[in-house]
C-alpha cells in the first residue's frame, strides 16, 4: 500500500490559490513529487515481478513445450496453456485478459523485440488494436488507484 497525505494546496482547482503561501506551495510540491516517485517505484516493482515469471512454464514444462515445438505447433496443448499462464501474448485474442494493463504491454513489446533480434536479427511489425491499448491504460490507472491510501 502506498500511503499518501492530502495535499489540496498544490493545485488551483482544489484550493483558494490566493491564500497559499510560497512555503506551503513548496511543501505541497515536494510532497507531490515524493508521491509520484513512490507510485513509479510501485510500477518498477510490478515490472520486476513480470520479468521474474516471464515464460517460466517453458522451463517448468519443457517436455510439453518441446512436444508442441517438435510438431511445429500443429499440436498446441502446451501452447494453449502457455497463453493462459502468461499475460503478454497480446497479439492473440485469447491472450488478452480482461484486466490487461500497461505492464502486460511492456512485457509484450520486450518479448517481441528480444525474440526478434535474437532469433532473426529483426523485429516484425508489432501492433495492438487501439481498444486494447485504451483498456490497458484504464486498467493500469485502476491498478495504481487500488494501491493508494490517503491519510489526513
Short description:
The chain has 152 residues and is mainly α.
Protein model, in words:
The protein is mainly α and 152 residues long. It has two domains: 2-53 and 87-151, no CATH class; 54-86, no CATH class. It contains six helices and two strands, in the order βααααααβ. The chain has helices at 22-53, 56-60, 62-70, 77-85, 102-120, 130-145, and strands at 2-5, 148-151. It has a two-stranded parallel ribbon. Helix 1 crosses helix 5 (102-120) and helix 5 (102-120) packs across helix 6. It is elongated. The two termini are 16 Å apart. 9% of the residues are buried.
Q: Give the terminus-to-terminus CA distance.
A: 16 Å
Strand order of the largest sheet: 1-2
The H/E string reads EHHHHHHE
Number of helices: 6
**Structurally, how many domains make up the residues?**
2
Shape: elongated
Give the class from helix and strand content and strand pairing. Answer: mainly alpha
Mean pLDDT: 96
Q: Give a short account of the largest sheet.
A: 2 strands, parallel
Structure summary, number of beta strands? 2
* Helical content band: 55-70%
Uncertain spans: none
| Radius of gyration, CA atoms, in whole angstroms | 21 Å
Give the percentage of residues in beta strands.
5-15%
Amino acid at each position: 500500500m502506498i500511503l499518501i497525505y492530502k495535499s489540496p494546496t498544490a493545485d488551483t482547482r482544489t484550493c483558494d490559490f490566493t491564500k497559499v503561501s510560497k512555503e506551503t506551495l513548496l511543501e505541497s510540491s515536494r510532497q507531490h513529487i515524493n508521491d509520484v516517485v513512490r507510485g513509479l517505484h510501485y510500477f518498477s516493482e510490478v515490472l520486476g515481478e513480470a520479468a521474474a515469471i516471464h515464460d517460466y512454464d517453458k522451463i517448468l514444462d519443457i517436455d510439453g513445450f518441446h512436444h508442441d515445438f517438435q510438431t511445429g505447433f500443429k499440436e498446441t496443448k502446451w501452447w494453449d496453456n502457455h497463453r493462459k499462464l502468461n499475460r503478454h501474448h497480446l497479439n492473440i485474442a485469447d491472450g488478452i485478459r480482461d484486466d490487461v494493463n500497461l505492464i502486460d504491454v511492456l512485457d509484450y513489446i520486450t518479448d517481441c523485440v528480444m525474440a526478434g533480434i535474437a532469433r532473426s536479427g529483426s523485429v516484425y511489425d508489432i501492433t495492438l488494436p487501439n481498444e486494447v491499448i485504451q483498456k490497458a491504460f484504464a486498467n493500469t490507472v485502476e491498478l495504481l488507484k487500488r494501491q493508494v491510501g490517503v491519510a489526513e
